[in-house]
């Protein structure tokens, strides 16, 4: 029953172009995920002899998504993953630890594959998207700062590959979706 609905975010993962691993993106602010994008575009062809409706509709483009969301888990790795820049490290070998983050000093293009695993048991795969992100929100004692993010869906590099797809999480190839984050079957939607 739940696979007839899509709801809730279980996990978001990102693999940079040329990367080998899909990194989990941190906590997404409740209620901030919006599919955005644009509706399909068309042009109506009108005829003088037919005043009540167009005689032809020419399709210009399919509808597009361009998700926006707020990342609220601002550890240094998430700052780098979403905005580029470099990590500040201290020590070496086993004593090495990350103690900070440097904002990028040049133009950053963070593109790659994205997966959004839904609490309802499906996973959306986006083979090629660019993230646009900036530090936002307010600096107060009643809320956390956030990284305001937008995914721009780009044409996949391989011919014939769709710009995104949604499929059952449990039917994806092993190692693709997070098996540990697979949601329990539930009849009630959960907030993502």
Topology:
Layout: E1 9-16, E2 23-25, E3 41-45, E4 56-61, E5 68-71, H1 76-83, E6 86-90, E7 97-102, E8 110-118, E9 122-136, E10 146-153, E11 165-168
Antiparallel strand pairs: 1-2, 1-8, 3-4, 5-10, 6-7, 8-9, 9-10, 9-11
Description:
This protein has 192 residues and is mainly β. The protein has a single domain, classed as Pnp Oxidase, Chain A. It has one helix and eleven strands, in the order E-E-E-E-E-H-E-E-E-E-E-E. The strands form three sheets. Strands 1, 2, 5, 8, 9, 10 and 11 form a seven-stranded antiparallel β-sheet that branches. Strand 8 and strand 9 form a beta hairpin. It is elongated. The two termini are 19 Å apart. The C terminus is likely disordered.
Helical residue percent?
A: under 10%
Number of strands: 11
**CATH topology-level name:** Pnp Oxidase, Chain A
Shape: elongated
Element-by-element helix/strand order: EEEEEHEEEEEE
Q: What number of structural domains do the residues give?
A: 1
The largest pleated sheet is described as:
7 strands, antiparallel
- How many DSSP H or I helices? 1
CATH class, please?
Mainly Beta
Mean pLDDT: 88
Radius of gyration: 21 Å
Low-confidence stretches: 178-192
Instruction: Tell me what portion of residues adopts beta-strand conformation.
Output: 35-45%
CATH architecture descriptor text: Roll
Query: Which structural class do you get from the secondary structure elements?
Result: mainly beta
Question: Between the first and last Cα atoms, what is the distance in angstroms?
Answer: 19 Å
